[in-house]
Amino acid sequence: MSRRQLRLGAFLYTPGSHSAGWRHPDAVPETDMDFAWYLRMAQTAERGLIDTVFFQDTAAVNGSANLDGAGAIRPRVSRQVYLEPVSLIAALAAVTTHIGLISTATTTYSQPYDLARRFATIDHISGGRAGWNLVTSQIEDEAGNFGAERHMDHALRYERAEEFWDVVTALWDSWEDGALLRDKASGVYIDGDRLHFQHHEGRHFKVRGPLNLPRTPQGRPVVSEAGSSEAGKRLAARTADLVFTAQTVLEEGRAFRDEVRALATGFGRDPDDVKILPGLMTIVGRTEEEAQAKLAALQSLISDEAAMRLLARLCGDLDIHAFDPDGPLPPLPPSNAAKARQQLIVDLARKEGLSIRQVARYLGTSLGHQLQVGTPAQIADRMQEWLEEGACDGFNLMFPHFPRPLEYFVELVVPELQRRGIYRTGYEGRTLRENLGIPVPANRYTRTGANSSGGGTSV
Ligand SMILES: Cc1cc2nc3c(=O)[nH]c(=O)nc-3n(C[C@H](O)[C@H](O)[C@H](O)COP(=O)(O)O)c2cc1C
Predict the structure, then answer these.
(1) CA-to-CA distance for 165 and 162, rounded, in angstroms?
(2) Apex CA 239: angle with CA 149 and CA 231, to 5°?
(3) CA of 136 relative to ligand 1 center, distance in Å
(4) What are the two backbone dihedrals, phi and then psi, of residue 353, each rounded to the nearest 5 degrees?
(5) Which of 142, 221, 294, 365 is the most buried (most CB within 10 A)?
């Protein structure tokens, strides 16, 4: 097949990426806590030959860092209940066969040894389908649950993330292929020459190693990232296999992809090994009218108040409620959370002359990501255009609610993409790397032969 192929992720952001989607008559908000629904959604995505499901995470109740005068939580986003996603993908590994399983985990409030073990374990359980969405933690709320007074500064978070990734990947390499012998004849279980200590000592971590389980089916689990600030792009270009992003205009998508690919080349990587997936929410109808009617039904459910809570989250310390909702968006203070996201919204508001209320409703619809409403052919046209114009390698699919919109995408849009020859008709391989078309990284110790633990064998 000579045409470039779309890579697709299904972002299972329960109960839906539309702020009011969970209130739609077809919506099943229990998709956030009921494993039977996660199972059904992952199997639907697998039936649609989607590369991977993807789960976000914040280890705190949204808004819990912002108490009101009486000490009660003032939730900024009301939808906040879901299963811990690393445990969730372990469970999904047992009931799926081909689809990738990506969970978010933060470098700001985790330890690399523990995280390396957990994702390596899931890579073993799933036969090579695990992925780690590396985040530095976007919002303030998590700090109070991990012994910190304040959320770590943006620059320091990224510095820690760089070192975190170095340590985790060294641990994943600590067992060379073939180090686990279990040789009954000789009585040798482990080849100590192929087991390596890390003896890492950096600014943030001190880790001796090695990991206590062998190299995984993918060599290393896939790593995805979603930062778009300068520090975020640099980290992604050096370390990420997949990049989730949020451009909504084709030229901006292409500029972002070109920049990350150029940075990756600068780090000595093949830019084709970094796949860029902008977010895309689709609202599919058999006719354009049906699709527009679905959108109108969803929009009628957004309350200004809920939309304003989403906007408030993006505004950092600024009290957006103090401004006239029908006036222009005021200048926002520098964000310690999502720098690049904030800039995208500010630019859009300025370019389109949007009021505060309009910006809030726009965020409430697709979290500021691209929205396509139409027939399967209209949606496929846009996806194909982005792919063929070099603005993406595929999309991170978002759904207003669950499970029907995911099912519509699989039933209606997938066949249209296949008909155009830009989407697979069967999984190419068994591991996520094989399906994404990205290679197994060389084991650093096999390459250099350095740092051997020195021949100790265990019987
Ligand atoms: C699709 C998508 C999913 C994300 N999921 C999470 C998440 O689960 N947890 C989190 O803390 N941040 C999440 N983020 C935020 C990013 O990881 C990142 O912190 C944010 O984009 C700000 O980074 P920047 O300041 O480098 O732009 C997500 C972003 C995108 C676009």
Answers:
(1) 5
(2) 50
(3) 8
(4) 60, 40
(5) 221
